[in-house]
C-alpha cells in the first residue's frame, strides 16, 4: 500500500510522539531533590509562629502581623494611609492587590468595589470615564456630555459619576452579561482618585446608596 | 545521485528555507504583537517567542505555528550551513562571511540571554541596604531553618510550575527531617473562606482561581503543600500564597521551619545601600522630570559612592542596575522615599552591540569591494 512506503517516517514520528504523549498525560506524583541551598539574607524578618492560616493569608481582621512587603503593595499601603473612609455595612475588605488602595466585596463576592489612585493626570477624567464605558460595551461620551454627568462630592471636589449597565469586559478579556457599573473620578492636585463598583445589575442596584455614601465619606488621612 | 543526508543539508542551507523562516518570524512577530493587547507581554513572550510550537486562534480555528525558539534555532543552522560552511570562501568576498558570522553571533546571544540571564528588581528605602534582587514574575518556594544554621532550601518555579490539577510533587533533601509535597499550583489566585466540607481546603481556607492578569506582575501565585515527616509523624497541611502576611511555620523534630512562596530571589556578591534618592518634578505636576539614586557599593570591605540615573546604569561584576521607579507616588516633602532598580545579570549583555559592529564591518567591506569593482569596470569600459 502507498502509505506504508514511507514507513521510516511514520516510525520516526511515533518514536518522538509516544514519549511526549506518555509524559504529557502523566498525572501521578513526581519526586525531586532540592539542590539549591543558600544562607538566609541578612536582616530577614523572623516568621511569627502559631498564627492561623486565615490570619497568615490576610482573611482575618487582626493587624497583629503587618503585611509582607509586596512588590507594588509597598507604594499602595503608603498611599492608602493618605485617605480615610467609612466602610458601608455588608462590605468586606478583600486582600490587598497591586495598584489598588482597597478592594471591597459584597453580595457573596459578586460585587466588587475598587479604590485606586494614580499620579499625574492619569490620562484625563473624560478618557477614564470613556474607558469604563468601553468596558461596558458603551460608546464614548463627548466632552459636553461628560460635563453634564451627575457629580459626587469627594474630598470637597466635584467628581463626575457614571452609572452604566451592559456586558462587562474586565482585565481577563471575558465578557460578562447583565452587569452594572458605578464609577466616580476625583481629580486631585497631582493625582486622580478612582472608585469603581461592578457586579450583577440587581446586586449593584441594592448598593447604589452605599456607593454614594462611601464616596462621600472619603477624607484625607490626616484629618 | 544525492544521498538523503546531502539532500537534507542542501535543503537546510537553501535560500528558500531561509526566506521561509524569515517570513514565519515576521508573521509570528505580527500575530504576537496583536496578542499582547489581550494577554500582556509576559504571556505572549512565553507562548509565541520562547516556545517550539504555538497554537494561534483565528476566531474558532486553531492555527499551529512554529514558535520563535524553534525558528531561530533553524535560522542559526540555515545561516551556519548556507552563509558560512557552504559559502565560497575567498579573499574576494570576506564581507559576506563576516556579516553572516555577526548574525550568527546575534542569534547565539539571544540563546545565552534566554537560558542564562536573570532579571528583577531591588527596592530600597533611603538608608536601607540589600545584596539580593527579586523577580517580577517568577516564583520560588523556600524552606528556611528558623533556629538552625539559617539556611534556605530553594525550590525554583520551573520545578513546581506543572503541579496543577491532579498533579503533585514531593521535594526532599537529606538535611531536612521532612519532605514537602506541593500540589494545586495556580498562577493567579486569592485565598477565600472555604464552604463547609470542601475537599482540599486547609483550616477552612481555599485558593480561588482568578483569571490571569495581562500585566504578569499583578498575578499572585498560590499552592497547597503538605509536610511529610521522615520519621513517620502526622502530615501537616498548609496553604502558600504569594501575598501572605507571613510564612507558614511548622515544627518537625523539635525544630521550627518557615515555608514561603515568594518571588524568585538572586544574590549579588556585593551590597548596595541607598544613601539618598533625588527627584525633580515638572512644576505643579506629579510627573518626574528626573530622578536619581545615590548609592554606596560595598564589596570586600571597600566602599564607593555611585550615582544611578535614568540611562546611566551602574554596571558591576556582570550585574546592571537601572534606575526604574520610585515611590510613594503621593509622597509629601518629609515622606521617606524608596527607589526601585531594575537589575539584570546577563552574560550576553553587550553581545548584540558587538554583533552589530561585526555585521557593520562585514557589510562595509562587502559594499566597498562592490563599489571598487564597479568603478574599475566603469573605468575599463570608458578606456578606449
Describe the structure.
The complex is a heterodimer of chains A (223) and B (384). By secondary structure, chain A is an alpha+beta fold. Chain A is built from 7 helices and 11 strands. Chain B has 384 residues and is α+β, with helices and mostly antiparallel strands. Chain B has 3 domains: 4-116 and 350-382, no CATH class; 119-131 and 268-345, no CATH class; 133-265, no CATH class. In chain B, strand 14 and strand 15 form a beta hairpin. At the A-B interface, strand 1, strand 2, helix 2 and helix 3 of A face strand 4, strand 5, strand 6, strand 8 and strand 11 of B.
Quick overview:
The complex is a heterodimer of chains A (223) and B (384). Chain A has 223 residues and is of the alpha+beta class.
Amino- and carboxy-terminal Cα gap of chain B: 49 Å
Please bin the fraction of helical residues of chain A. Answer: 25-40%
| Computed structural class of chain B | alpha+beta
Radius of gyration of chain A: 26 Å
| Beta-strand residue fraction of chain A | 25-35%
Quickly give the CATH architecture of the domain at 88-220 in chain A: 3-Layer(aba) Sandwich
Can you summarize the main beta sheet of chain A?
7 strands, antiparallel
Amino acid at each position: 500500500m502507498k502509505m506504508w512506503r514511507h514507513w521510516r517516517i511514520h516510525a520516526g514520528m511515533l518514536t518522538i510522539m509516544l514519549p511526549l504523549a506518555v509524559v504529557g498525560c502523566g498525572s501521578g506524583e513526581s519526586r525531586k531533590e532540592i539542590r539549591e541551598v543558600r544562607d538566609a539574607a541578612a536582616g530577614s524578618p523572623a516568621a511569627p509562629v502559631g498564627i492561623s492560616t486565615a490570619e497568615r493569608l490576610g482573611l482575618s481582621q487582626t493587624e497583629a502581623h503587618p503585611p509582607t512587603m509586596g512588590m507594588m503593595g509597598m507604594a499602595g499601603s503608603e498611599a492608602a494611609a493618605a485617605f480615610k473612609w467609612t466602610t458601608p455595612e455588608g462590605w468586606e475588605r478583600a486582600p490587598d492587590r497591586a495598584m489598588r488602595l482597597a478592594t471591597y466585596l459584597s453580595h457573596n463576592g459578586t460585587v466588587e468595589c475598587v479604590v485606586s489612585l494614580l499620579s499625574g493626570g492619569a490620562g484625563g477624567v473624560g478618557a477614564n470615564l470613556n474607558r469604563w464605558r468601553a468596558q461596558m460595551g458603551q460608546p464614548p461620551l463627548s466632552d459636553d456630555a461628560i460635563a453634564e454627568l451627575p457629580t459626587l462630592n469627594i474630598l470637597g471636589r466635584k467628581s463626575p459619576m457614571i452609572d452604566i449597565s451592559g456586558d462587562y469586559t474586565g482585565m481577563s478579556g471575558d465578557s460578562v452579561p447583565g452587569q452594572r457599573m458605578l464609577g466616580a473620578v476625583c481629580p486631585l492636585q497631582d493625582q486622580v482618585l478612582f472608585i469603581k463598583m461592578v457586579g450583577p445589575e440587581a446586586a449593584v442596584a441594592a448598593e447604589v446608596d452605599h456607593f454614594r455614601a462611601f464616596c462621600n465619606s472619603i477624607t484625607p488621612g490626616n484629618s | 545521485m544525492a544521498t538523503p543526508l546531502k539532500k537534507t543539508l542542501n535543503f537546510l542551507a537553501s535560500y528558500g528555507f531561509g526566506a521561509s523562516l524569515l517570513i514565519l518570524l515576521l508573521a509570528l512577530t505580527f500575530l504576537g504583537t496583536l496578542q499582547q493587547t489581550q494577554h500582556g507581554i509576559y504571556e505572549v513572550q512565553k507562548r509565541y517567542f520562547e516556545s517550539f510550537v504555538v497554537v494561534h486562534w483565528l476566531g474558532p480555528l486553531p492555527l499551529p505555528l512554529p514558535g520563535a525558539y524553534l525558528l531561530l534555532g533553524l535560522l542559526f543552522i540555515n545561516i551556519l550551513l548556507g552563509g558560512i560552511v557552504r559559502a565560497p570562501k575567498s579573499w574576494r568576498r570576506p564581507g559576506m562571511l563576516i556579516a553572516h558570522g555577526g548574525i550568527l553571533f546575534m542569534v547565539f546571544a539571544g540563546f545565552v540571554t534566554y537560558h542564562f540571564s536573570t532579571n528583577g528588581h531591588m527596592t530600597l528605602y533611603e538608608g536601607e541596604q540589600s545584596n539580593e534582587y527579586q523577580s517580577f514574575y517568577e516564583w520560588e518556594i523556600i524552606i528556611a531553618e528558623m533556629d538552625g544554621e539559617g539556611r534556605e532550601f530553594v525550590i525554583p518555579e520551573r520545578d513546581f510550575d506543572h503541579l496543577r490539577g491532579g498533579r503533585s510533587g514531593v521535594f526532599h533533601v537529606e538535611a531536612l527531617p521532612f519532605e514537602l509535597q506541593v500540589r494545586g499550583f495556580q498562577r493567579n489566585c486569592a485565598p477565600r473562606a472555604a464552604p463547609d466540607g470542601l475537599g482540599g481546603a486547609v483550616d477552612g481556607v481555599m485558593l480561588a482561581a482568578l483569571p490571569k492578569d495581562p500585566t504578569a506582575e499583578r498575578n499572585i501565585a498560590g499552592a497547597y503543600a503538605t509536610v511529610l515527616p521522615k520519621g513517620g509523624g502526622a502530615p501537616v497541611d498548609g496553604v502558600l500564597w504569594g501575598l501572605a502576611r507571613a510564612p507558614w511555620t511548622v515544627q518537625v523534630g523539635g525544630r521550627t521551619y518557615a515555608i514561603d512562596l515568594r518571588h524568585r530571589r538572586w544574590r549579588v556578591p556585593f551590597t548596595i545601600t541607598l544613601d539618598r534618592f533625588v527627584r525633580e518634578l515638572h512644576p505643579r505636576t506629579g510627573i518626574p522630570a528626573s530622578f536619581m539614586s545615590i548609592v554606596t557599593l560595598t564589596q570586600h570591605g571597600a566602599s564607593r559612592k555611585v550615582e544611578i540615573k535614568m540611562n546611566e546604569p551602574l554596571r558591576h561584576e556582570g550585574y546592571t542596575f537601572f534606575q526604574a521607579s520610585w515611590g510613594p507616588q503621593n509622597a509629601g516633602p518629609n515622606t521617606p522615599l524608596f527607589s526601585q532598580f531594575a537589575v539584570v545579570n546577563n552574560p550576553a549583555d553587550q553581545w548584540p552591540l558587538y554583533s552589530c559592529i561585526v555585521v557593520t564591518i562585514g557589510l562595509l567591506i562587502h559594499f566597498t569591494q562592490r563599489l571598487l569593482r564597479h568603478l574599475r569596470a566603469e573605468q575599463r569600459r570608458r578606456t578606449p
